[in-house]
User: Fold this.
Amino acid sequence: MKRKLDHDNVPAAEVPKSDGGPSFAAFGLDPRLLRGIAAAKFSVPTPVQASAIPSALEGRDILARAKTGSGKTAAYLLPVLQSILKRKQQHTSVLILVPTRELAEQVYKAVESLSTFCAKDVQAVNLTQKFSDAVQRSLLAVSPDIVITTPGRASLNLNTLALSLDHLSHLVIDEADLVLSYGYENDLHVISKTLPKGIQTILMSATLTDEVDLLKVQFSRDPVILKLEEAEDDRGLLSQYVVKCAEDEKFLLIYVIFKLKLIKGKCILFVGDIDRCYRLKLYLEQFGIKSCVLNSELPVNSRIHIVEEFNKNVYDIIIATDENEVLGDEEPETLTAGDTGTEGGEASNGTLETGSGGIKKLRESPEPAGEDDSTRSKDSQRKKKRKNTKRDKEYGISRGIDFKNVACVINFDLPTTSKSYTHRIGRTARAGKTGMALSFVIPKEHYRKHKSTTFPTTENDEAVLAKIIKHQGKQGKQVKPYHFDMAQVEGFRYRMGDALRAVTRLAIREARTRELRQELLKSEKLKRHFEENPGDLQHLRHDGELRVTRIQHHLKHIPDYLLPKGGKRGIASGGELGHVGVRKVSENRIRKARMNNRTKGKGKKGAALRRKVDPLKTFKAKAV
Assistant:
């Protein structure tokens, strides 16, 4: 059956109708956008879309608060695209500011998806990609309709006159509460000076903080404030658990959890720093557990590709660092002067310095007495090398990036603030799906009892946990304690020790260097080849073994005598976790015992079978 044509000779879109609620067609959007919505498989508007789109189409400024994964990107892109198609101007009319490069790429792909059927009339540019200045000027010279960038990159192009905002009609600031936290105050001030009067401003945020209030005063005019609370049913989708354990037991439990497959689905592990990231990856490799690394040191093309492959279920485990922790109005717990923390036997003394962007650096304090000059010189040289390491300041993992179908978030190292904890666990239990957050907490009495696995911030885990429980309690959520039966996993401890001894400081440094070298090569391939051949994308593995440690093949297999008496269910004495799948092993053991009896010749059938296959009893020969 042929569809009707509108006044622009465009077929009407077939958009699914909602049950009693608003539909996308009711907003009066361009038919080409409705076809893009249908192709993107958006069935009905989410609450933030149903509230923001009508006000935005009326030209009102908007300040919307909604949780991550609630559809905020489409909530501001659809009105923006509608205005572009309506005006049909050959000027840059929309500026979208985001805090990170990963989020910029995500927004750019959302623009491409929604404007699939009107691509000739909508031109968008992502300036966060590592283009040269000449290439950026050439991209901006054609006056694209939409410019997606970070405030720093926008300020730079405004100063060089490559970007013109004279005909701007819409300014969008996505993840507004993070923009100032990432240190873009001066850049936003430069942008505000060049904005023409009367433009429409849309601010999207997951929380309403003092930073968002500053942006509202600076850019908005009597905005419509939308505070979209979580539905009551959504509160039960996320299960939060806390495991109190010793420092080395973190590594023991993470080995047991993944090797015995106690957690089903995809998982994100948050660790304290980049070295800790590679230590955990090398440790899991000893047991044949594959994982990929995501941190600010890797090239942006590789980071984007890792996220895409994770969303395509190519990888199951990502070990991520969160250098730019989100602090908001809360100050992190700090270490007292002279406190020490070690990672792999390496001392790192001092207190944590903080700023608007989170933990900045570890301030050095006097070395403890008893160390010789050579040790101090080596440590100082090592610290200088680390300080010189280039990291992407526009990197952020706990917010903004769209991870899909994350079953579990594990805080291997607890964050320093409850605000950062909230953003981390927001990676799971999205879009109506259940999820689990599991956090390891080091009690005060266990701090620095196992120096080779100590991490400095864990000294304040109990204080941070108290704030987390209080903050989650205000939202009607519970953080429940969870107890693993350590007696059941005690047999795995010697294997943990063997694996940790193999992961030395030298192995971590070599792994970090090798991974960075490999990812640089992959990043160039991604940049050059896939831009010319977008349909020829083949999976580039980011979870391969680094092979810089001594591989102990016997650790990859678990003998039966190490398994708990009660099966995998016996390890978790506190009940089943949200995404924990425990298999029944009783039937398998019986079946296995029967097979062993048959092969050993026990029973009449087994004896008959052995007589048939015994070559010494069936061999016949004649003497010559």
User: Anything to note?
Assistant: The radius of gyration is 28 Å. Confidence is low (pLDDT under 50) at residues 13-20, 335-380, 382-388, 574-587. The first strand starts at residue 62 and ends at 65. DSSP finds 20 helices and 18 strands in the chain.
